[in-house]
Amino acid sequence: MGIRAVYIAVTNEEMDRLENLSEKKLLKEVEKMEEKENYNKVNIDKMWDSLHFVLTEITASEPIEDNPLSEFVVGVYPILFEDEFVSFSPQEDVQKIAEALKKIDFTTYKASFKPKNLAKNKIYPNIWVDAEDDLFNEIKNSFDELMKFYLKNKHLNIIVSIY
Fold it and tell me: What is the CA radius of gyration of the chain?
């Protein structure tokens, strides 16, 4: 199993509770939330790094501060663990990200999309050998699914978990 990205919408009360946990407890709690059915969440699996790269031309391991497209993928306030990553995106930031997303026509990225650029930049999961159209469509589907999630949950906080 590879590294995947899961996005979970949470209330202010849940966000406050999570922010006050130790890092070890935070990671365990977020993992529990991913398993529970009662949370609104989306899983874009392994496409997080490629989506970030297509939108920003930089790997997700180098988030861009105050860039809504970077924050869309990796969140606003990251907490890094050894092999895991959890990030908080407060409601105000989620609303800004959602507004920025409304202006994006993802198909415009098609012209500059080259799988060899993903491979050259060692973009996870380094599977960039499939047909260009198929890969672009898979990344676009992840964008569409995640954008829909942000727009639906723009009045909540979002937790990003990448592990």
Answer: 15
Beta bridge partners, 43, equal: 6
67-75: Cβ within 8 A, 24+ apart: 68/96, 68/97, 68/99, 68/100, 68/101, 69/100, 69/104, 71/97, 72/97, 72/100, 72/101, 72/146, 72/147, 72/150, 73/5, 73/48, 73/146, 73/160, 74/48, 74/160, 74/162, 75/158, 75/159, 75/160
pLDDT in tens, 5-31: 999 999 999 999 999 999 889 999 999
* Residue that is written with structure tokens 């529990």 in the block: 32
Cis before residue 63, ω within 30 degrees of 0? no
**35-40: long-range contacts at Cβ-Cβ below 8 A with a sequence spacing of 24 or more?**
39/8, 39/9, 39/10, 40/8, 40/9, 40/149, 40/152, 40/153, 40/156
Please count the CA atoms within 13 angstroms of the CA of 83 that sit on its side-chain side. Answer: 4
User: Domains of the chain by range and CATH?
Assistant: 5-162 (3.40.1760.10)
Query: What's the predicted TM-score (pTM) here?
Result: 0.94
Q: What are the pLDDT digits (tens) for 67-80? A: 999 999 999 999 87
